[in-house]
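Example record used in the benchmark description.
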Amino acid sequence: MENEVKSRSIDYVWHFTKIENVDSILANGLIPRATLEAQGAAVAFNDQYRMDGQKTANCLSISHPNYKMFYSLRRQNSSQAWVVVAFKPEILWLKDCAFCHENAASNNVTAIPIQNRKGVAAFLRMFDPVAGKPDRATLKLPDACPTNPQAEILVFDTIEPQYIEGVITPDKQTEQDLKARHLNFDFLYHRAFYSARLDHEHW
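Model output (structure tokens):
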């Protein structure tokens, strides 16, 4: 797995979250929802339900956030602020991961047993051509990008703070505010991660 991830030059794995959760994530890591609920933790969950049925896992994306889901959630409450957390790609081979070639809640994915979504073959399937869509060359996708923009990683473990590379903020003021509070982490205002992928017209 490590060789496959490195051969694709995957630099980051992404997770978007409400800004209220940033302090906790930077202090304690990204913790699966089931654990947080069992602890009675005060967390602003992204949505009310986990339609993929995998509350014991954290949801992340490779190379670019799942912009379709991210946009939908942001539209529900335009006053809610969000950040995008970047994690080191090592989690893909050091943690217990399942690889979903499209949205983890889709029928096509939930029909596949979790064990069959793990391992190198499942990882590579994320980069296969998608029926009815242009090939990867036409989509101009770099090797690091899964073919389907809603492809997801389920990580069945806490992702500790040492795996956090930094946080992307929606505006410069948020970047500066977070920098002042968390001196050991990097923050960057970057609108691209709040936008669609360049091949969005095909999806």
